[in-house]
Structure prediction request, 610 residues.
Amino acid sequence: MRLRSTIDFLLYDWLKAESLTTRSRFTDHSRNTFDAVMDTCERIAREKYAPFNRTVDTQEPQFDGEKVILPQCTYDAREAYAESGMLSAAQDYEIGGMQLPYTVEAAANCFFAAASISIGSNMLTSGNANAIMAHGTDMQKQVFAANEFNGRWAGTMALSEPQAGSSLSDIATRAQADGADFESDPLGPRYRLKGNKMWISAGDHELTENIVHLVLAKIPGADGKLIAGVKGISLFIVPKKLVDTEGRLTGERNDVALAGLNHKLGWRGTTNTLLNFGEGRYPVRGASGAIGYLVGQPGEGLKCMFHMMNEARISIGTAATMLGMAGYLASLEYAQNRPQGRPVGASGKDSSKPQSRIIEHADVKRMLLAQKAYCEGALALNLFCARLVDEQHTGSEQEAADAKLLLEVLTPIAKSWPSEFCLEANSLAIQIHGGYGYTRDFPVEQYWRDNRLNMIHEGTHGIQAMDLLGRKVIMDGGKGLQLLAARINSTIQKALQQEKLACHANQLARALAEIGAATKSAWATGNPQEALANAVPYMQAFGHVVLAWIWLDVALAVLAMDKDLAIAAHRGSMAAQRYFFHYELPKISGWLQVVKSRDMTCANLEEEAF
Prediction:
């Protein structure tokens, strides 16, 4: 299957997205409206994004001391995306949204990610606005979120600091109450922020008339000192330019200064910044300190920000998936057209015969099938998680509760598994191209560079793994893991009834039991140091079991449509499913061995021995 047909199959034949139109929120929609959105996004991605993927990679953002300079294609792509309505696709009609199911929004956004992941940062704007909608005041929603959804303004998330990195408990950005009347500001309790933020994507540009930063900072205690740990963290809206209660620019520049641009391995089309808040470069009302408005309650900043972070994690998983998919499709086309080598017969190669196309070689087929299994499986997982979002918001009380719990468990996998294995797909795409793969004559080297960032974006592998094993699978007495296991077992029972799938159903059942046993063994001593020493191998194995389940469920949908597999695309899907069970799922035993034995080889090695 190619991208559109793959998405259509997963959306309609597997996830039954059309059935969402029976729910009151989506009754105005039909498959026709869903398809119209997909058509529009596919066209914009083809016309405004894909032709300029190399342009934004080679013409990186530049800072002239006053403003950031970007190529014109970035402005054109951003304008087309905003005009499409996709920034507010899932929002209420009352604020200019389309009330689309999030499943459809996520599927439509895949086209942009595949065409050029770094030409825009729209997911940050939508995520920023969604966080404000979830935790902000009515005025904050009206002024800030609404103007992000309509495309006037852009949004960021400003968490990391140069000295703290991923350790948010160590952030030092300070927020002081701004005057005796700070609590009476109609835009929210008003503070002055001072500090530095690092690695802020889309932190400065001229694409929009304003930028809305969501900034984590600490409010000092009564003794004037910052509260240690994450409990002291609060969340603030800090606009680049100050605005009034009608959303109009006041003409005042906030005290937010661009200190410099980071130039990364990939995603080069997106500005990545070091921002100084409150250094006094742009004094506001006669004083230094960036004006910020408190979101939610003091000390609950992480709770509010995690609304955006979790959404961003799933989006990063999708970005990784689509970069892998782009590389797969590029290497498939190359393999179908590149002649090299000849078949080996009983007497060796016959040089008098014409060359074979490299897709005829078994090892090239192996590499293509691996990419297909990784990328199409990851895409199915991404869309399944999007479907859970719709269940959470529009399902029955029990469906919503189950969807929320499943999302909690699956989010670390949805972010990290594609980031690792779709990156491996990009590596295989380069391998298929041979020496040409390392050159800029072909796009696969850029796909690899762009995708390498996603193992770090929105939390490293190690952070996601500790979240999974240290919190998600044991919270509430393991209810999330139990719910996921029940879903997997339901698929297993159905697959046992299919001759083509029964052996794989039994294989998955054994793998699931192995995950359960490893989880118990990891925590057998109750010592977090021992339990989490091998959290990443645990997450790799857990992710493989989840992907095996996804593939088995997809295979059931294929057989329901085409029992005799008369359609070539369906035979391809079944081959990818078999590949995953034959080549990938057996790997979990090695990963889980160190988890079950609580192996401390890495954790206990003294620094001097390295």
